[in-house]
Amino acid sequence: MTIRVLIADDHEVVRQGLRFVLEQEDGVEVAGESEDGARALAAVRALRPDVLLLDMVMPVVDGLGVLRALRDEPGRPAVIVLTSFHEDDRVVEAMRLGALSYLPKTAGVDRVVAAVRAAAEGGSALGRETVKTHVSSILAKLGVADRTQAAIVALQQGLVPLDEALG
Prior knowledge:
It is a single chain. This protein has 167 residues and is α/β, with parallel strands linked by helices. The chain has 2 domains: 3-125, Response regulator (Rossmann fold, 3-Layer(aba) Sandwich); 127-167, no CATH class. The chain is 49% helix and 17% strand. It has helices at residues 12-23, 37-47, 63-70, 88-96, 109-120, 128-142, 147-156, 162-166, and strands at 3-8, 28-34, 51-55, 78-83, 101-104. A 5-stranded parallel β-sheet has the order 2-1-3-4-5, sandwiched between helices. The longest helix has 15 residues, at 128-142.
């Protein structure tokens, strides 16, 4: 099976670089490119890609707007968010809206390709930076210093049943 990818990024050099990298991969085809969110939505509907590589900051409609618009779309593609930002709220919101992976634009070629392949199979390939960001955010919001304290708070507040925690 060939994985069909749509690249949505407002920087032409990023689109060209991703296209070049992905076209070197067996079983991966770049179905199209879009330079803004509105065109990305139209391209998703017209081309029906398997995977959408989505920049978070684009003109007309940003990445979160694209994710919101695609939320209830039938046959929506698996979405991988690529961005130069590491803001907690954007990560959480993108994942809440259905993005499978969230990788920084500084991610290596192998990580991007792995994320595309994982997304095509319905899986996630979150970057280490993204996971660290999530954990730090959770700890800060709970007002605790480490994961052990977070687990205790979760048990005390009934967020996790004791039998699952002992698992």
